[in-house]
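Lay summary. Proteins are chains of building blocks that fold into shapes, and those shapes determine what they do. In this project we predict the shape from the chain. Here is one chain we studied, written as its sequence of building blocks.
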Amino acid sequence: MQTSTKTPSTLMVVLAFATVYIVWGSTYFFIQRALEGFPPFFLGAFRFIIAGLLMLGWSLMQGEKVFSWKIMKPALVTGLLLLFVGNGVVIWVEQFLPSAMVAIMVSSAPLWFVLLDKPRWSENLSSKSTILGLVVGFAGVILLFYEKIMATMSSLNSGRDLFAMGLVVVGSMAWAGGSLYSKYNSVSTSATVNSTWQMLAAGVAFIPGALFSGELASVDLSAIPVNAWLATGYLVMFGSIAGFSAYVWLLKVQPATKVSTYAYVNPVVAVLLGIFFAHESITPLQISGLIVILGSVLLINLHQYRKPKQVATTY
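And here is the predicted shape, written in a compact code that computers can read:
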């Protein structure tokens, strides 16, 4: 995907959003399957290094400018903030916290996008529909997972888990900050090149964690079940290469607040996949949460529907 001075086609934007919404929503399911065979830090290193090397090969085949420190530096910083800190925190805390609680705290990311996106403060903070949409969306995620959280609250270790919850907030801030850094500081117009270095940086950064935790020494690749390998293959090809590249491209051509709505839609997709493929049930409260979340995405984009020419911006 290349960015240009032209306004991107509506079809490309829709396809990119659909990829980020649906594919990233499905990764909740496939990460669980992958962790049945791969230890967490080893999985992070393996997934991102393989994806990064594949994208590096593709970029070289396309004749793109890859080996330039001016291009690499912002991509490396972004990769460490997004994929290592943001994703790494989630991987680590899920050893202690229920996934539903982690999903809710990760869904605070759109709020951080607004607070940290200083160049767009005047636009975002003056839009009542955007602010209302962000608050409503977060409330919808709480509704979606409320019953699961209440069922697991009694098992929480207060001191340890409060620390873990604080780390998730830091991870969400790092993800939002890294996304905005990429939006305003990326030099290369190629989402493929940017994603290549971001994933390689994160993959290498996961290696010390795998070493210190003993994962690298204890993992037995021959003993990993086929389903875990298939899930990891999906994470590499779709979650990393397709989904992350679409996300990086969207950050360049769309307002960051609009792109951040993935954090509300992904849990919706995850719940729906659980219903259709894992035979999970859905309650009236969860249905209410789904409706509230989808309504919040409409609110966040409402002012753009009303005044499309005034907010259309190219990068």
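What the prediction tells us: The CA atoms of residues 142 and 155 lie 19 Å apart.
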